[in-house]
From TrEMBL:
UniProt cross-references to CDD domains, sorted A to Z: HP_PGM_like
Native organism taxonomy: Bacteria, Pseudomonadati, Pseudomonadota, Betaproteobacteria, Burkholderiales
InterPro entries attached to this UniProt entry: His_Pase_superF_clade-1, His_PPase_superfam, Mito_Ser/Thr_phosphatase
The name this protein goes by in its record: Histidine phosphatase family protein
Keyword tags: Hydrolase
Top-level taxonomic group: Bacteria
GO molecular function terms attached to this record: hydrolase activity
Length: 222
């Protein structure tokens, strides 16, 4: 039996023209996570990421802090859903830029509704897979994890896939993953005990590498 460390990417560039890019703080968060792994003597039998830039950059920063870089398997099934497409499927009019508290809250209210509609099959956001195919890509990645013969595995992904895994392991409804997703912090670690047949949740959404007064201001959600 090994452990799966399922990590959300560091802070990206919310509100910028290109969200899919780590902010300087996002790089620091993930580098610090790598340092934490190093202090614990963590070594990984396999490393998987999605194909999004922020996920790949997050692993690069983790590897820098860990002092050990290894080949990664990049799987589209670990990519995040397209939040703009999800929103546009139920709200075709452009949203105001989320640069005020109210605009920020409106963005996430509509996102919740859009995700629920996609999960229920009421919408099909442009350029995205069906929800069933989205889940299928995550299952494929987990099958690869269970097939690792020995040792721990690191996955660097995003809130959508991570919350989907947690909800399914707990036997919760798909809609539960929406609220889980909106609470996952940047560079947070969720741990699962793994054997060839199943995963068991050990911890969710933890930030042991930022658990100090020095790093309190590094905790972010978007």
């Amino acid at each position: 039996m090994g452990t799966l460390y399922l990590v959300r990417h560091g802070q990206a560039s919310f509100g910028a023209d290109n969200y899919d890019q780590l902010s300087p703080l996002g790089v620091q968060q993930c580098t610090q996570l790598g340092r934490y792994f190093a202090t614990k003597g963590r070594r990984f039998a396999a490393v998987l990421t999605g194909t999004l830039q922020r996920q790949i950059q997050s692993y690069d920063a983790i590897a820098e802090g860990l002092g050990q870089r290894q080949a990664t398997l990049q799987l589209p099934g670990l990519n995040e859903y397209d939040s703009h497409a999800v929103i546009a499927a139920i709200h075709p009019q452009p949203l105001a830029k989320a640069d005020t508290p109210e605009a920020y809250r409106q963005h996430f209210r509509i996102l919740r509704d859009g995700l629920a509609a996609w999960m229920a099959g009421r919408t099909q956001p442009q350029g995205m897979p069906s929800y069933a195919d989205f889940v299928g890509g995550i299952h494929d990645a987990l099958a690869r994890v269970r097939a690792v013969p020995d040792g721990d595995v690191l996955i660097v992904s995003s809130g959508g896939p991570i919350s989907t895994v947690v909800a399914q392991v707990l036997g919760a409804p798909a809609e539960t993953s929406i609220e889980l997703n909106l609470r996952i912090r940047n560079s947070a670690v969720s741990e699962f005990a793994v054997n060839p047949k199943r995963l068991a949740l050990v911890t969710f959404n933890t930030l042991p590498h930022l658990d100090s007064a020095e790093h309190a201001s590094w905790v972010t959600h978007t």
